[in-house]
UniProtKB/TrEMBL annotation:
GO molecular-function terms, A-Z: spermidine synthase activity
Domain PABS, first and last residues per copy: 52-308
Protein family membership: Belongs to the spermidine/spermine synthase family.
Biased composition (Gly residues): 1-10
Organism: Miscanthus lutarioriparius
Name of the protein in question: PABS domain-containing protein
Length: 416
């Protein structure tokens, strides 16, 4: 989700709703009921991304001519991805981005931000479970009398919160999401994700994540999970050295970061730069992992896992496999949360068990955790070779933007 910028996304949002999350019917323009194959021009006029019953990313329309044009998104040049649309459920705009929700024929409901698919009912589990449990299952259980503090950057859909809720060892969960509209829409249309907001340990902060981190006391968090959008425009700041340095400052010794880190098939240059920056910033362990998400470009997405200097962290072998985390694999479970008393830092009280409507785990198992760090030969060769020699990095630790791809695609293809 979008994590850059500043301000509250709930102001000034233009909204056009379909059926709400409670099943109540709400009026829609005729062209919104279903994309009409007979009149694609009128459909494009209303929804630039839905034509003839299909959603396609990336696509735009051209002014008065209503001429649909395909263009190269710098994150995945030369590609366009499509899903068949059964019904448009919502279209609106916040101060930060355009928001679209539709029912697809094969992947259930789909959330789209600025024309880019963020998640679907069918495959969201792979992303949410991996980005959360890879870091949390890699850090030791807290010692008696201590608990874990976790921060989520972005993640306004609530999916990462849902997965963190499976861990009773976590005392508090802060989330900083810039766009209130994303939170509200996901509560309406994706309740199986937004259930994470029901956890009483969650503290929501709507605003600029960079500013939030700057104001966080040093050494506050045991784990930080960055569920950000692609590094284009303002989000470019979230993959550069100053941002990672701010994260490292907010982590305790031995604390861990898990950062969304794009696709090894398309963004090797970007991953190389991020790895180099993080190995300068985090003196513990730095690893790259990946998983399969069919509706993301190339069908895979990566994660950058970093540990701050301190107690050693071995990401490759989960010290607390998800199957051994008490109650984590159960659906609709009751959980006991350990809360520190605000009046006496040495006193800990256990509050009454609280029912959380968690769905079953769908994707991750211990073997999947271990396998996530096994890279294909081409990716291992390129990433290791680059990290051994960082001559192409600037002295300011900046990341090359996606459009500076050059001939790297051709160089990679020559491996085969």
């Amino acid at each position: 989700m979008e994590a850059g910028g500043a301000g509250n996304g709930s102001n000034g949002a233009a909204q056009t709703k379909g059926s709400g999350g409670d099943g109540s019917a709400k009026p829609l323009p005729p062209c919104c009921v279903k994309a009409r194959a007979a009149a694609p021009e009128s459909e494009a006029k209303c929804h630039a991304t839905v034509v003839s019953g299909w959603f396609t990313e990336p696509r735009s329309h051209c002014g008065k001519a209503i001429k649909v044009q395909y263009y190269n998104n710098p994150m995945w040049p030369g590609e366009a991805h499509s899903l068949k649309v059964e019904k448009i459920l919502y279209q609106g705009k916040s101060p930060y981005q355009e928001v679209l929700v539709f029912e697809s024929s094969t992947y259930g409901k789909v959330l789209v931000l600025d024309g880019i698919v963020q998640l679907t009912d069918k495959d969201e589990c792979a992303y949410q479970e991996m980005i959360t449990h890879l870091p949390l299952c890699s850090i030791p259980s807290p010692k008696k009398g201590t608990t874990l503090q976790v921060l989520v950057i972005g993640g306004g859909d609530g999916g990462v919160l849902r997965e963190i809720s499976r861990h009773n060892s976590v005392e508090s969960i802060d989330i900083c999401e810039i766009d209130q509209l994303v939170i509200d829409i996901c509560k309406d249309f994706f309740p199986h994700l937004s259930v994470g907001f029901e956890d009483p340990r969650v503290q929501l902060h709507v605003g600029d994540a960079v500013e939030f981190l700057r104001n966080a006391p040093e050494g506050t968090y045991d784990a930080i999970i960055v569920d950000s959008s692609d590094p284009i425009g303002p989000a470019q700041e979230l993959v550069e050295k100053p941002f990672f340095e701010t994260i490292a400052r907010a982590l305790r010794p031995g604390g861990v970061l898990c950062n969304q880190a794009e696709s090894m098939w398309l963004h090797t240059h970007l991953i190389q730069d991020m790895l180099s920056i993080c190995r300068e910033t985090f003196k513990g362990s730095v690893r790259y992992a990946w998983t399969s998400v069919p509706t993301y470009p190339s069908g895979v997405i990566g994660f950058l896992l970093c540990a701050k200097e301190g107690p050693p962290v071995n990401f490759l072998t989960p010290i607390n496999p998800i199957e051994e985390v008490e109650g984590a694999t159960k659906a609709g479970r009751r959980s006991d949360f350990i809360i520190q008393s605000p009046f006496n830092c040495n006193l800990y009280v256990k509050i009454v068990s609280i029912k959380i409507r968690l769905p079953w785990l769908i994707f991750i198992v211990e073997q999947m955790h271990r396998a996530a760090f096994v890279l294909p030969t081409f990716a291992k060769r390129e990433l290791e070779a680059y990290c051994a020699s960082t001559e192409t990095m600037s002295s300011h630790g900046t990341v090359r933007p996606p459009w500076e791809l050059g001939s790297m695609h051709l160089q990679r293809r020559q491996i085969y």
